[in-house]
Amino acid sequence: MSASFASLPDAGTAEVPAVIRPHIYVVVPTFNRKGLLKRFLDCMRGQTFRNFTIIVVDDGSTDGTSALLRDEYSEVQVLIGDGNLWWTGGTNCGIRHALAQAGADDAILIINDDLEVDPIYLENLFASWRRMPDTLIGSVAIDINTPGTILDGGCLINWWTAKMRMLNAQKDLSEFGRDYHVDVSTLTGRGTLVPVKVFREVGLYHEKHFQQCGDLELPVRAKNRGYRVVVSYDAVIKLHTEQTASVNVSAGYSLQDLKSYFFGVKSYALLKNRFFFSYDTARNPVAFVSFLICDMVRITVHFLRGLRGGRSVSSP
Q: Which of 102, 252, 269, 281 could bridge 310 with an S-S bond, Cβ 3.0-4.6 Å?
C-alpha cells in the first residue's frame, strides 16, 4: 500500500490560499471513474461555501484520471495509490492527509465520486454542523433520475434482530422543512461530515476488517463513545445508482450471482463484512451471536427473493 502527492500547488509558481477556520476537508476515493469524478468536482467548484479543500485519492486509475486532475483541477490535492487501497484504505489515506493539515475545530467530509450536489450543499451541511457540533452528519440521498423523491433518508438498526429500517424512503423531500434531521443508527460514506476530533479520539475506518463497504462501522463506534449520529435533510446528494459498483444494485439475481453476492469484495452481503460488522458493533457476546445469525438469515432471504421474483433490489 502506497500513496504519493500530485497536483499540489507549487509555492514558487502559485499562490496557496489561506485556510479559513473552521474548514472542511472533502475526501473522495476514486478508481477508473473519470467521467463521474469530473461531474462531482464540477459540482464542488460551484459551491457557495468556500472554506473547503478537496483531497482525491486515486487508487491507481488507468482511465486518464490522473491527467484530468493534473490538467483541469489544480486546486485539488491528489494522493496516488497502488491499486490495492480499495474504498476503506483509500478513504483512510485521505483522512490521514487531512488530519495532518486540519485544526481542532475542522471537519472531514467523506463522500463518493458517483454523486452530484447542488451549489448550496456544503453551505447547508456546514450550517447543520454549527447547530450540532459534536455530531456526525450524513446526507439524505435521492436518485438523480427521480429528483425530489427520497432514496435513503437514514437507517435505524435493531442490534438484536439485525432488522434495518430505511427512514422516509420514497417520500417527497419537499414534505420535510428547513433544518429537519433524524437521529440514525449509522451512516454511509455517501456524504458524511465527521468532526476532526472524532477521528482523533475514535480512530479511522477499520481497513483490516473491511476492504470495501467499511463505512457503516465507524459511525456506530463514534455513537458508542457519546457522539450523535444524524442525517440532515438540508444536505442532499444525488446518486448515479446505475454506476454503483456492487452486485446489490440489480434488477434481480441469478444463480450466477451467488458467488459475487456472498463473497465479492464489492458486495454489501460479503460474509466477511457481515461477520466483522456484527462483531465490531456488538455490545456483548450474546448480542453479537443474535445479530450475526439474524443478519445471515436476512441477507440470504434477500437473495432468494430477488432470485425467485426477479424484482428490483438495492441492498440487503
A: 252
Give the containing element (helix H, strand E) for 301. helix 285-309
Reported as type and span, the H/E element at residue 237 is strand 228-239
CATH of the domain at 141: 3.90.550.60
> Rounded distance, CA 236 to CA 238, Å?
7
- Total of domains in the chain: 2
Q: Record the cell numbers describing residue 135, joined without a space.
A: 455530531
Closest CA to 108 of 95, 118, 117, 97: 95
Question: Percentages helix, strand, coil for the chain, rounded to the nearest 5?
Answer: 35, 20, 45
| CB atoms closer than 10 angstroms to residue 202 | 18
User: Distance (Å, rounded) from C-alpha 19 to C-alpha 21?
Assistant: 6
pLDDT values of the chain reduced to their tens digit, one per residue, 316 residues = 344 444 433 333 334 456 777 999 999 999 999 999 999 999 999 999 999 999 999 998 999 999 999 999 999 999 998 888 888 999 999 999 999 999 999 999 999 999 999 999 999 999 999 999 999 999 999 999 888 899 999 999 999 999 999 999 999 999 999 999 999 999 999 999 999 999 999 999 998 888 777 889 999 999 999 999 999 999 999 998 766 555 555 557 778 888 888 888 878 788 888 898 898 999 899 999 999 999 999 989 888 888 755 444 445 5
Closest by alpha carbon to 69, among 34, 112, 105? 34
- Boundaries of domain holding 285: 255-309
Cis peptide before 22 (omega within 30 of 0): yes
Contact between 194 and 110 under an 8 Å Cβ cutoff? The reply is: yes
Is position 198 within any domain?
yes
pTM (2 d.p.): 0.87
3-state secondary structure (DSSP) of residue 152: strand
